[in-house]
Amino acid sequence: MILHGPILYGANFLKRETHSPLQLPSSAFSNIAISELFSAIRKKKKKCSLLSLSMEFVLDKDQHIHDECSTLILPALSIGNVGQLAIDLLVSSSRAERIGYLDDSSVLPCVGNDAYAPVPQGVLALPLEAYESLSNALTLVQQRSPIVKGMMIEFAKNLADFAATNGKKHVVVLSSLDSGRRQKIDMSSGTQIYYLSSTSPDGTDDHCEKLGWKVLQEYNIDQRRWKLLSSLAEGNSSEDASLFEDELLDEDYYPSLPFAAFFSCCKAKGLKVTCVLSYCSEGDNIADSLQMADAVCKLLGLNPKKLSGNEGSGWLIPPSWKTVYGPPSDMSLY
């Protein structure tokens, strides 16, 4: 994920405790050693109740969860980071406010500068952050680092627990798919949006069909890997979740992706879940993320031009995207 300044890693990052937002000078990442930075974080932390055996939800100071924000939108890491970029757009354009962060032992630790502030103020950006847009009744989770190998199922279960515990009625999962895996290409229009819904056993949804989207044909609950995933999500399988790390057959590609784990675990919790999917290739995926963010608005009946409450403003590009191609070239070289 794109952050202002370098991302710093630590083995014991924010484990089982909480802190209020830590303010650092804008130059902090250049003049504070990593060990000193994490020492500063630990001094700011306070005790917090445990959400589950391996995940905590930590509210920022003076923040709380609003019941009316009952739709949860989150990315599933995949090729091109399209889901994460779309979340960036939704958070920035809706002017959503950070309410806290999720700390899970399955997520690799990282830290960076605030991704949404026009001018970096030294507020830490963390691996899993929760935002709310009251005016749009949305809760958004941004994920900035990958999952530890072999822990995807456990992580998906924890996120499903978080959604159920906090009264979310609809979970929307955003994910890209490798265009090299696509069997059929529809050249009659632009990017085709695909979907997968929990509203029916075969994954179809009338509302999504009316939007012109196509159900993911590769979803087959009787296929061995989809079946294993569903069984693991329901806690009925004695098989090891690490089997998902074995060598994949072509038919195993889709159920091996993070979105499939989120879908199965949220469905097992009785939550309504819709996966919004699009094919892409690795590269400049900004256009893909704009189309996915548009698709989310169509799904939820929102107007992108009114997300921030100011009609006509359209999508607000996050300041962190200025660094997407790295620093400019040194003109003295030319």
TrEMBL record:
SUPFAM superfamilies: Cgl1923-like (SSF159659). The keyword Chaperone applies. InterPro entries: Proteasome_assmbl_chaperone_2, Proteasome_assmbl_chp_2_euk, PSMG2_sf. Keywords: Chaperone. Transmembrane segments: none annotated. One of its GO terms (biological process) is proteasome assembly. The keyword Chaperone applies. One of its GO terms (cellular component) is cytosol. Coiled coil: none annotated. It comes from the Eukaryota. Belongs to the PSMG2 family. This is Proteasome assembly chaperone 2. It comes from Aquilegia coerulea (Rocky mountain columbine).
